[in-house]
């Protein structure tokens, strides 16, 4: 991964994780598209459970790239307990461990109107 | 819900479920859009865990509408253990319980290129 330069922003795409490694396949495709669309931005995938890296590991990789601000984008459908409690707690730990780093949490992907519309369109196409 | 008529198709939008009821908010929005786009098709939400109705309950509702074929559209990101094992087992149980009903399982929403692209676009927009 290229050096991100001073003040650079990095993205952590943060997903739940699962026991079956094939569960991660869509996230690998999403990450590939994000990297293609934002070629100057370091992008890491991270998982809450079962898979690696975890949030800490992904943040360490971005810090090693010179990133000073990180946007954690949750690849979750809904704003449940993980996003209301677990993820903010993890971010608070990492913020304490990296005082110069700004870590921001975006809303869940499932709260985005474009994502909602795409899933609805998928349901309609597959409902016949 | 209107009577679906003879041979009609119904959709079950099937999500994981979570303890926090706010987790379901995106799915309610998605269901609203699907109903608006397919006004003649009975649409039910169902959950694997924590929330109601479960798959059985949603199928009973559709059968009561006169539906004879059901498309189960999994609102899951990846093809992990739930979709490879748990959901097919549930569908097999319901197929045995309703011999005249055809129940088909669509791929996970996260495997759809349109959904992948929408999530990637969301990440790019929220990564700056």
How would you summarize the topology of this molecule?
The structure is a homodimer.
Chain A: E1 8-15, H1 25-37, E2 43-47, H2 55-64, E3 67-74, H3 81-97, E4 102-105, H4 113-125
Parallel strand pairs in A: 1-2, 1-3, 3-4
Report on the structure:
The structure is a homodimer of 128-residue chains. By secondary structure, chain A is an alpha/beta fold. The first copy, chain A, has helices spanning 25-37, 55-64, 81-97, 113-125; strands spanning 8-15, 43-47, 67-74, 102-105. Chain A has a 4-stranded parallel β-sheet with strand order 2-1-3-4, with helices on both faces. In chain A, strand 3, helix 3 and strand 4 (102-105) form a beta-alpha-beta unit. Chain A is globular and about 55 Å long. The first copy, chain A, starts with 7 loop residues before the first strand and ends with a helix. Residues 1-6 of chain A have low confidence and may be disordered. Chains A and B meet through strand 1, helix 1, helix 3 and helix 4 of A and strand 1, helix 1, helix 3 and helix 4 of B.
What's the quick description here?
Chain A is of the alpha/beta class. Chain A has helices at 25-37, 55-64, 81-97, 113-125, and strands spanning 8-15, 43-47, 67-74, 102-105. Chain A is globular and about 55 Å long.
